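G., the chain you wanted modeled:
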Amino acid sequence: MSTVTVMLAGVGGQGTILAADVLAKVAAASGFDVKLSEVHGMAQRGGSVTSVVRFGDEVHSPIAHPGSVDHLVAFEITEAGRQLHFVKPDGRLMVNARFIQPMPVLLGTMPAPTGLEAILDDERAIFLDAEELACEIGSIKSANIVLLGALSTGLEFEVEAWRDVIAARVPAKTVEDNMRAFELGRQACEKGECAL
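Predicted structure as tokens:
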């Protein structure tokens, strides 16, 4: 298969790195060559975190260039706007419908961005409220796994591969919640919420 590029973008504390690690491990378990890169911008202080997972028969670089991303999963709206230029014209843009004020806005040095939802909507973004779905199982921290469940419907990996990796990667006491979170993300897409 040709190389598939997935970018996951969020802020520190949203589980972006864990989600990228799960995706990379699922791709590897499915027999593909995988490259993973991460950028942590003050991640522990709410800064941007971007991970790129590229997989295929033979992957030469972990780097994504503008216009090269097949799937962008944004863990919040501002990061979707920041990374939008990476998405291919026919790429899939999945956005968690949550706005986290960037640090300059919180510090009062910049105004809050406006009009992002309309811009993303024009780009055929798929909006999901991952936190709301995660709260259905009583664990808002599982929103990242909800987003992986939604993403999984657009990738050709076996569902069991996802379940096996998630079970091995998350803390043992959270496996059941994370499995439910993954299913809620998949179900949201299967109901048509993720259709382009």
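Residues 107 and 193 are 36 Å apart (CA to CA).

Shout if anything looks off.
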